């Protein structure tokens, strides 16, 4: 697989989002998840994305187990900043914590669970409105000086926050949702990243599986799948978005690829400084996704896709989730 540069960090042009292997997308199968990670490495997909809150903690543990003896073959990205703070009324309560104390506490836990002495790309998962970004990134920069982290990243940060962070310590990558049905970063975030030489990592490039045609109704998903309650998968929004998915399927048929491959090919075509990280927990879907690297979209193809695809209807998250993005 070819590589792309996120700032000064070279990674495989397609990465693997590991979240669903442990959390949020229904039941987990550790054996298949580990086999999927190993197959990704065999195919040259060596940019692996996790976070301490996936599980929580169990996704990093899974990666550590899968990568035992193979650490040097991969680029590990993980995230911190969403801390579990259970209360009597809310046992799953989470808070945003970008404090220097939590920076230190989090990296030590991540390194232990991952079974490594360093993380290649360490993201602030969400911006903490109660801690100046300069303090958070300053503490993250200390980890670089100590060799525990090689590169710094932000996730779901606003342009001004990105600039302030980058002034404290070079930011290598910005991770934000981006796909055929989530085009928000094009207005300000992508231009800001390009101006500053920051790479862009696109999560959920398949619209959480919806654009690949893997489900058409939340009723088809497992009871524990958080997508069952997503605003884009409800009522009139779902009906409108089914038309978008149908258009993706139509265009993919003309190109001789699957809908998911077209969606990933479109993200790859947006620039060599973008790296999509489609998530999956099964080898079958992994192999299909990675084949998107061979889908060639001309400028005319991209222009047609942009012109003919309607915008998605509905917010990306519920109101609680939306309050944590663009920080």
From TrEMBL:
<dbReference type="Pfam" id="PF00248">
    <property type="entry name" value="Aldo_ket_red"/>
</dbReference>
<dbReference type="InterPro" id="IPR023210">
    <property type="entry name" value="NADP_OxRdtase_dom"/>
</dbReference>
<dbReference type="InterPro" id="IPR050791">
    <property type="entry name" value="Aldo-Keto_reductase"/>
</dbReference>
<dbReference type="GO" id="GO:0016491">
    <property type="term" value="F:oxidoreductase activity"/>
</dbReference>
<protein>
    <submittedName>
        <fullName>Oxidoreductase, aldo/keto reductase family</fullName>
    </submittedName>
</protein>
<feature type="domain" description="NADP-dependent oxidoreductase">
    <location>
        <begin position="13"/>
        <end position="307"/>
    </location>
</feature>
<dbReference type="GO" id="GO:0005737">
    <property type="term" value="C:cytoplasm"/>
</dbReference>
<dbReference type="InterPro" id="IPR036812">
    <property type="entry name" value="NAD(P)_OxRdtase_dom_sf"/>
</dbReference>
<keyword id="KW-0560">Oxidoreductase</keyword>
